[in-house]
Amino acid sequence: MRWREGRRSENVEDRRGMRAGLGGGGLRLGGGGILLLLLVAWLLGINPLHILGLLAGSGGSTLELPDSGSGPAPVGAGSPQDEGADFVSVVLADTEDTWTELFGRAGARYQPPRLVLFSGVVRSACGMAQAAMGPFYCPSDQKVYIDLSFYRDLRERFGAPGDFAQAYVIAHEVGHHVQTLTGVSQQVHEAQQQVSQREGNALSVRLELQADCFAGVWAHHADRARQVLEHGDVEEGLNAAAAIGDDRIQSQTQGTVVPESFTHGSSEQRVEWFRRGLEHGDLERCDTFQR
User: What contacts 258, CB < 8 A, 6 or more positions away?
Assistant: First the structure.
């Protein structure tokens, strides 16, 4: 993927190595107190992340996350050590350019999301989140959150290497932001309150598949306008979409596949909708709710 010459986004927050706020008033524990509490939890056989969750829920402390001592590098610094952050900034900027143009054609104004880089644990308007959850979008604060270690998992655990595979992940989360701006996410959320768990899961799948299609729409227009794709990039993106299908993940983690529990879609479905957006670049072809 040709990205190094692209512009950098101004909508990136780098929280790596910085403290994650766990609330305002009440009990306050300093960095040493938090570390001691986590050590005791570990000695007692308690998952320390559960303790962090309890602290977050109590609204009573500020956690000082471990730091390397030098502080986080500026996003877009261009150093070899921070190439991942630089890449994310460029991809986010490209989605901004693409969606600004597409919204403008429809007579609307695109309001870009902010992207938060974090390490380990982060607090969002949707609650506390761990890196193990993977990248996510929070509609309450309209921010995309990503721990860059996920890209290692994408490459090594899911077998989906390549920079365009990584770009697809960001574009998918930005697709959820587009759904928020257009009101689709709110409509789905309201509908899910009126149906069974199984039907709610089916609606979630449709929402995720549309975000895949939107990711493809971004790639289609970005390549036409800025020629970002190189040989093999399309295959990387399709491979990534297939690698994180519910059926493949369930098969790897629990040995069985339960379609009724799918929330993101099968590998085949995710590839189909990402490819649809990529090939046509037409938002009207991304209506997953009419099929």
Answer: 250
C-alpha 198/C-alpha 263 separation (Å) is 10
Which residues neighbour 246 within 8 Å (Cβ) at sequence distance 6 or greater? Answer: 205, 257, 259, 261, 262, 263, 264, 265, 266
Residue 33: what pLDDT? Answer: 55
- In angstroms, the CA 191 to CA 10 distance is 35
Average pLDDT, the chain: 84
The single-letter code of the amino acid at 205 is V
Judge residue 156's burial from the number of C-beta atoms within 10 Å of its C-beta, 0-12 exposed, 13-18 middle, 19 or more buried. exposed
pLDDT tens profile 4-56: 998 999 999 999 987 655 443 333 445 555 566 555 555 555 555 555 555 44
**What is the residue extent of each domain of the chain?**
20-63, 87-290
Note the pTM of the prediction, 2 decimals: 0.80
Q: How many CB atoms lie within 10 A of CB 104?
A: 11
Contacts of 206 (CB under 8 A, 6+ apart): 188, 288, 289
